[in-house]
């Protein structure tokens, strides 16, 4: 046992971190290991790889993810901001490099290979962007003369423009939703939020008119007979096959023919093999993580910590909701991973980075530390 009066970095972290939140995140990671073992062997076999290829790589990515998660959760808010700026700049440069040098897959350039590792830079850009936007919104509440909102808008336009060029409209919509939520949380008027929502809808309609694969996905969602709906149909069949308690580990049928059963449709595999009960448990875990983080965020007196933790929780929750909604045919198909459950190295490490910041920003800091941070912000405003 660690004594409360021990003054070491680890003891300080242990007594201030939200252990329930940390436990829920670890439970999700464990669920990802189990479901990767269940869903990935048929996919690997189908493309001529070792049956445990994707599972082995999932485990390989899990170790650095844990190190990133725990390491980032030790950082104070000031270091969180500095690291987010560095990660965001590097991610933007990598996205630009991807647009120039990345391989085109299904009409999009989203991946770049560095030192033999495939990297999707948009994944790491998301949590860093949320923290940078939260910092700007927090500054706008303390320093009205600073054009922080305009800077946050410029930040948004920079990232969204690059994502549209890839193109990756799913990530674009996710970024817009989280930024809009932060804008609202920061106390902006509803007319601004409504205006931004209108612009986003106009952008989606333009994509429908101008981008064939976006139009195709929406048409197939509205009228399944208009195109190939094999994956979503198989996903729904998996839910029906699994029932409440599932067919049993390894007994799934859908994963044998689903091309993306280990990534976009791992939730359907979970339903078929372990039942709707497990799916509800996963939904409960995601909901607990989001609600717990939001509760802790709103208890914070530091505006930056409040906004950043809230934004990261919304990013985490909306991404999970999109993946599960696609599996249940509630929205048009979109390739987006289920946090910590789906296979994907860039996704898992970036999620660990984002969740590590959530843990860091929701730690119980002494009141004097919070007051000193706020006073420092006020002092900068008068300097």
TrEMBL record:
Q: What is any one GO biological process for this UniProt entry?
A: regulation of cell shape
Provide the membrane topology annotation: Multi-pass membrane protein
Coiled coil feature spans: none
Q: A GO CC term? A: cell division site
Q: Which residues cross the membrane?
A: 20-39, 60-77, 83-103, 169-186, 191-211, 274-295, 307-328, 340-361
Enzyme class, top EC level, equals transferase
Q: In which pathway does it act?
A: Cell wall biogenesis; peptidoglycan biosynthesis
Kindly list the places in or outside the cell where this protein is found, as annotated in its UniProt entry. Answer: Cell membrane
Q: Which reaction does it catalyse?
A: [GlcNAc-(1->4)-Mur2Ac(oyl-L-Ala-gamma-D-Glu-L-Lys-D-Ala-D-Ala)](n)-di-trans,octa-cis-undecaprenyl diphosphate + beta-D-GlcNAc-(1->4)-Mur2Ac(oyl-L-Ala-gamma-D-Glu-L-Lys-D-Ala-D-Ala)-di-trans,octa-cis-undecaprenyl diphosphate = [GlcNAc-(1->4)-Mur2Ac(oyl-L-Ala-gamma-D-Glu-L-Lys-D-Ala-D-Ala)](n+1)-di-trans,octa-cis-undecaprenyl diphosphate + di-trans,octa-cis-undecaprenyl diphosphate + H(+)
Keywords attached to this entry: Cell cycle, Cell division, Cell membrane, Cell shape, Cell wall biogenesis/degradation, Glycosyltransferase, Membrane, Peptidoglycan synthesis, Transferase, Transmembrane, Transmembrane helix
Q: Which InterPro entries match?
A: FtsW, FtsW/RodA
Q: What is its EC number?
A: 2.4.99.28
MF-aspect GO terms: lipid-linked peptidoglycan transporter activity; peptidoglycan glycosyltransferase activity
Q: Which NCBIfam families match?
A: ftsW (TIGR02614)
Family (UniProt): Belongs to the SEDS family. FtsW subfamily.
Q: What is this protein called?
A: Probable peptidoglycan glycosyltransferase FtsW
Q: What is the originating organism of this protein?
A: Bradyrhizobium australiense
